[in-house]
Each structure stands twice: as C-alpha cells, then as structure tokens.
Amino acid sequence: MTDLQQRAHALSFGPVAEQYDAARPTYPAELFDELERLAGRPLAGADVVDVGAGTGIATRLLAARGARVLAVEPSGGMAARLRAVSPEIAVVKGVGDDLPCHDDSADLVTYAQAFHWTDPECSVPEALRVLRPGGSLALWWNVKDRAEGWIADQEQRLAKALPSYHFYGSSLTAFAEPLAARGLQAGTARLHWARQVTVESHLADLGSRSYFAVLPAEQQAPVLAAERAALLAAHPDGVLTEPYVLDLFVARTAA
C-alpha cells in the first residue's frame, strides 16, 4: 500500500464513526487484568494517553477501571462520536507520531487497534517522551481467529473481491527495533475470547473496516450482499460466533 493509499484508509473512518462504534467488538476484562500485570501497576489512578482512540471503545473501558484518560484521535468524525457517547472523557486532536502531550505526563500510553497507523520510528520515541519514569507503552490487536474455518473462508472471498483487503495480524515486528534501540523489550499476553452476533451486525462491522470504507457505496453493496448470502447459507439461523485472538504487548520504561 502506498503512503497515499495508507492515508486514505486512515481517514476513511470518520464517515462511518457511528457504525464503527455500534458494530466493532469490545474487549474482555481479562485484557485489562493482563495490562495491569505487565505494566506493574493498577489502572486506577493512572494517567493514560489513549492514542488513536477512535470512538472510545477501549477508552471507556480504561476509564471504567479508574484511569484518568486523555483520548488522542486524528479523525474529526470519530472524535465527535466519542464526545457524543462519552462527554466525560477529554479528547484532543493528534497522532501518535507527534503527540499533543507534555513530557513525563503519563503513566501509560495505549494503542488499541491503532499502532499500525503510525511510523514506529516516530511513535515509539514520542510515547517514551510522554511517559514518566516507570511508565509503559501498551499496544493490542483484537483480530478474528483465522483458525476458525468460516473466518478463513471469508478472508479468501474478501481478498478476491476487494482491491485493498488486508487482514491485520498482531506482532512486535514493527516496533521491536525502535524499542531495542532504547534498551527496552515488551512483555506479551495472548487471550482467546468470542462474541455472538447476528449476520447483519457482522456485516456492519465489516462495512466499518477501512478496506470497505474507502469504496463508494455502489462498490460495497454487491460485496456485502454476496457475503450475506454466503454467511446465511453456512449459518441459517442468522447468528455467528466470532472467535478472537487478542495480543497485548507492554514495554515498561526504567523507573
């Protein structure tokens, strides 16, 4: 994907913010238990900068654990949805490569499903600048489990039908080098969980993905219609169990 295409995908979420907020999966409580374990501190009372906060799906859960959260989001549409749903959470415009935060101002910098939109050579040192001594940079990705047959089948169909289809995995590859250059390494945790959704809710989730959102409606419609037919043929009751693999990476700075 070219830089121009990457930017178009990154900016595609604003117009689908409400759909994104309604259809995207949440995160299990165990994620935040593991985050606290790897960060070596409770979320309660922590100052957290949640980067690429989107509509606040993770932001709200961090706040519910007692953290003081600042949401950083580049998209006006996504930020507007976050403010509408969670007016108690502070939101500022910004990107991970150039955080609108003071030095030594946060205990944690978090990225939920968002770090891949950054340049790690910029975003890692930016996070370390903002973190206090002993603070942590935490990244996580929550992706559908490709070991499940119908997920793998769907991936093959979408890869054929959509010009910019991509299946995001989760790995340390993108930021291991920038961390190692600063004498840091990440602790990891992997969780497996699932949710039950209707076929229509699943399709709404798909439609909020950037590889759909960058396309005009007339190009999206036949792909979604074909996907609806395939899913209903395999799941005639119209209910799906979506399995997820959730990978968490936490890099702690020196105290």
Textual characterization of the structure:
The protein is α/β, with parallel strands linked by helices and 255 residues long. It has one domain (3-145, 167-193, 244-252): Vaccinia Virus protein VP39 (Rossmann fold). The protein has helices spanning 3-10, 17-23, 29-39, 57-64, 76-85, 120-130, 149-161, 173-180, 199-207, 210-213, 217-234, and strands at residues 47-51, 68-72, 90-92, 106-112, 131-144, 186-198, 239-252. The termini are far apart. 34% of the residues are buried.
Q: What can be said about the biggest beta sheet?
A: 7 strands, mixed
Strands, count: 7
Strand order of the largest sheet: 3-2-1-4-5-7-6
State the distance separating the first and last CA atoms: 39 Å
Compressed to H and E, one letter per element, the order equals HHHEHEHEEHEHHEHHHE
Q: Name the beta content range.
A: 15-25%
* Name given to the CATH architecture: 3-Layer(aba) Sandwich
Name of the CATH first level? Alpha Beta
Rounded mean pLDDT score: 90
Helix vs. strand class? alpha/beta
Query: What general outline do the C-alpha atoms trace?
Result: globular
Structurally, the number of domains stands at 1
Q: Which percent range fits the helix content?
A: 40-55%
- Report the total helices: 11
Radius of gyration: 18 Å
Reported by name, the CATH topology is: Rossmann fold
Q: What is the CATH superfamily label?
A: Vaccinia Virus protein VP39
Unreliable spans: none
